[in-house]
Amino acid sequence: MEKSLNKYISETGFCSRREADHYIEQGRVTVNGIEAAKGNRVMENDEVRIDGEKLKTKKSPVYLMLNKPKGITCTTDTKDKSNIIDYIHFKSRIFPVGRLDKRSEGLIFLTNDGDIVNKILRAGNNHDKEYIVTVDKPLTTDFIQKMRNGVRIQGVWTKKCFVKQEAPEKFRIILTQGLNRQIRRMCEAFGYKVEMLKRIRIMNIKLHGLEPGKWRYFTKDEITGINHMLVNSSKTDDRSEYQDNMDE
């Protein structure tokens, strides 16, 4: 069966579709010995290589979660000395689902399942991500209300969201968007600077009980729960529909 090249690559577990597009654009992908181009379609028996490495059939799916510490970069680029792949040092190829800013910490997923990445990251699927945020000065009722109702950043309005004050300089926020540096930019719009940002939940998966810098596999119940939530989620390739990075 014929399929798009980026989908074929992601289904092998090598990387996500978006990363596959980057490899193709950089001229690092060949199909049957010929340099590939975006939009190419392939058959199951075609030979696809990245950097000369022949892609193999997808292995069993791997789903794990990391309590990312500050200073780790959510990239598969090993030229970046602080990359998350070398930090995890997992036995087989995996890649992060979205990103967390290098200065941020908390929950991030890693997997070899390209389809689940596409379903989670697609903006229209509206999956919850919960954060605890500490800022540089006391919060006001006006700030909380305006954050809830949407903030104009980078020429667009953020969606209305749940925001609750937890302490004089700390609040909880639940987003269904993933605009680039969204929470930091929302705070900056009102003269606040983020001092600490920690993601504590993605969909049904909570960070609770996992020490900073540690990772673990999803439990069977967590996998069942997340698959149930993704049943009606689209995994379209429409680039305009993807969140920038499932970031804060």
Explain the overall architecture.
α1 (5-11) crosses α2. The protein folds into 2 domains: 3-54, Structural Genomics Hypothetical 15.5 Kd Protein In mrcA-pckA Intergenic Region, Chain A; 59-248, Pseudouridine synthase, CATH 3.30.2350. Strands 7, 8, 9, 10, 13, 14, 15, 16 and 17 form a 9-stranded mixed beta sheet that branches. With 248 residues, it is α+β, with helices and mostly antiparallel strands. It starts with a strand and ends in a 19-residue tail after the last helix. The protein has 7 helices and 17 strands.
In CATH, the homologous superfamily of the largest domain goes by the name Pseudouridine synthase
Radius of gyration: 19 Å
Based on the structure given, which CATH architecture of the largest domain is correct? Answer: 2-Layer Sandwich
Q: How can the largest sheet be summarized?
A: 9 strands, mixed
What characteristic shape results from the CA principal axes? Answer: elongated
CATH class of the largest domain: Alpha Beta
